[in-house]
Design brief:
Blueprint lengths: L5 H23 L4 H22 L20 H17 L2 H29 L1 H10 L20 H6 L3 H20 L1
Helix pairs in contact: 1-4, 2-3, 2-7, 3-4, 4-5
């Protein structure tokens, strides 16, 4: 039996940890109308960024440098950060904030580095130049000049299964809303 690499173990636990964190966020949440409205604003922004990125992402077929990839090499993970901030705001709980910070710092640096290494391996020359011009995570205001004029593609959005994030996000907010009015 092959031994799993530490990065594979972290990636596997990232998904499990996500579900555990969401369940804890629901349990520990103390939402009110103001926290829900501010939180949902962040979540919508994060989902829009993720959706925009998915409409430009052809996994492992070509280096994504169009759409939001012109500004950051990791718009999906940046979208997750924004969504997480929305969950924290909506939950209105210091415990949820602590869980989110611990989760994000435990998993995302490893995942981002793994992704970077994979792109360097798949697209060595392209990625070398791209990485010199576009930041790893925090977006730049200056778009990548060599980005092709590729338009958002709904078929890629669907293929990348981004609709699941929208569905699960909606379920989470319905549960928080119900918690606010029932408890």
């Amino acid at each position: 039996m092959d031994k799993m690499k530490p990065t594979d173990i972290i990636n596997r636990w990232r998904v499990r940890g996500h579900f555990i964190s969401i369940i804890l966020a629901v349990i520990l949440a103390k939402p009110n109308i103001y926290s829900l409205l501010s939180g949902i604003g962040f979540v919508i922004l994060g989902l829009l960024l993720r959706g925009w990125a998915c409409g430009h992402l052809k996994k492992e077929k070509r280096l994504a440098v169009s759409g939001p990839y012109k500004y950051t090499r990791n718009p999906l993970y940046l979208g997750n950060l924004i969504i997480g901030m929305g969950i924290v705001a909506g939950a209105r709980s210091w415990w949820v904030l602590a869980i989110f910070i611990a989760y994000f710092l435990k998993f995302y640096p490893v995942v981002i580095i793994k992704e970077k290494n994979k792109m360097q391996q798949l697209f060595p020359q392209e990625y070398k130049e791209y990485s010199r011009k576009v930041p790893l995570f925090i977006p730049t205001l200056k778009p990548y000049a060599k980005a092709p004029d590729i338009r958002f593609n709904w078929a890629m959005y669907k293929k990348n299964k981004e609709l699941r994030a929208l569905i699960w996000g909606t379920i989470f907010w319905v549960i928080l809303f119900l918690k606010m009015i029932l408890f």
